[in-house]
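Duplicate of earlier report; Polar amino acid transport system substrate-binding protein input re-posted below.
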Amino acid sequence: MAPPLQPLRRITGTSGPSRRSLLAGVAALGALGAAGCSRVPTASTTDGGDLLERLRAAGVVRLGIAGEIPFGYIDKDGELTGEAPELAKVIFKRLGVDRVQPVPTEFGSLIPGLNSQQFDVVAAGMYVNPERCEQVIFSDPDYQMLDSFIVRKGNPLGLRDYQDVVEKKAKFATGTGYAEIAYAVEAGYKESDILIVPDQVAGLNAVEAGRVDVFAGTALTTREVVKKSGKAEATEPFKPLVDGKPHVDGGAFAFRPTETKLRDAFNVELAKLKKSGELLRILKPFGFTEDEMTDLTAKELCGG
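Output:
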């Protein structure tokens, strides 16, 4: 895995905003913060945990979200949505927990908030990596993610990966805290030469204005942001190199390390949704495609 610059779905560690800058829905989060204060009793020390039983008894599970489209956010009507919350609604219903309750926080506070029992599960599309696996346990990923570039129409410089960017001395931009910073540096791009912008919309604007030749982001966000652009397009998704090897990121739900029973039960239902194709149906409204479906496991991404 790329070391210190990988964000929390994208950023490494637990501090700082996500690479996914807090987008729409953030303003509504404060109003819902108080709604996240009710608590299921503190964690059991029994083997594997008993949180699932306690959630069933309470009838509600508290989801830690970070106000980020399309992963987990509050929409303009004040409703909880996003790929992770919508998937959580289906899986927890199958597990006998009828309601989900959002607990908004900054992305960098998700793991500390989970482990201090401010909520029961992280439902924010968090990337699985070895550093995080030392702090929490993950479900298997519900999606995988490749990288892609925003370039001018026709891709005049023929930029297909980070090596192309370096070889063609392209003016390169990416977002604050994005994993793509580390990927570009690994390819040989000088970090001080990277233009850092707030998010993919700012990246699109930079490409359209000719301030940079390329903006790097996830395949999902780049293809969505260029849809209405007459000047830019997204390249085909590709795997960045990490330690010289092609790398695929995967996003998943996070649980406290003591709650293996809940994580395992969650994985059973997730596997059923993958096998039936219902997972894609749930995620498709948020821009996910067949390309983002995956058989990656948390064990693989944790480095074990």
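Residues 1-9, 11-43 have pLDDT under 50 and may be disordered.

Merging into the original ticket.
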